[in-house]
Amino acid sequence: MVRGGSVDRSIRRAKIFALTKGFRGRSKNCYSLAIRAAHKALQHAYRGRKLKKRDFRSLWITRISNAAQEQKMPYSMFMHNMVRLEVQLNRKILSELAIYEPRSFQALADLARRRQSKGLLNALK
């Protein structure tokens, strides 16, 4: 009986070539080079997904810091008082508030400033 398997082989090769579609040079056409290129591209994609989270967090912190500086308050003091006041807004939402709702952010900064100067009970009055 003749052994089969060419179908599996062609499907496997097609998957690799689908991953390397759009690459430059022989790495899109030559199977042995395409395997290496696809593997490396998947490694870069994996690493990039982790770096994206770091980059966005850094961006949000920078935005909040700049908005807090406009309110004459350092970032660390602002965030410390947000935690102490149990404000359940994460950095992403705070940065969006700073950009699109500056008056709301100003109100939060005022609340944080009052919390800093007078304590929790007086800040909520």
Helix content: over 70%
Shape: rod-shaped
CATH architecture: Orthogonal Bundle
> What is the CATH topology descriptor?
c-terminal domain of poly(a) binding protein
- What is Rg? 26 Å
Give the H and E element order: HHHHHH
Helix run count = 6
Q: The biggest beta sheet, please?
A: none
Going by CATH, what is the homologous superfamily?
Ribosomal protein L20, C-terminal domain
Structural class: mainly alpha
Mean pLDDT: 92
Q: Class in CATH?
A: Mainly Alpha
GO molecular function: rRNA binding; structural constituent of ribosome
Organism: Trichoplax adhaerens
Family: Belongs to the bacterial ribosomal protein bL20 family.
GO cellular component, one term: mitochondrial ribosome
Describe the protein in words.
With 125 residues, the chain is an all-alpha fold. It has one domain (7-123): Orthogonal Bundle (c-terminal domain of poly(a) binding protein). 76% of the residues lie in helices and 0% in strands. The protein has 6 helices and no strands. The chain has helices at 6-19, 31-70, 75-84, 91-100, 102-118, 120-123. It is rod-shaped and about 85 Å long. The termini are far apart. The relative contact order is 0.08. The mean pLDDT is 92. Belongs to the bacterial ribosomal protein bL20 family.
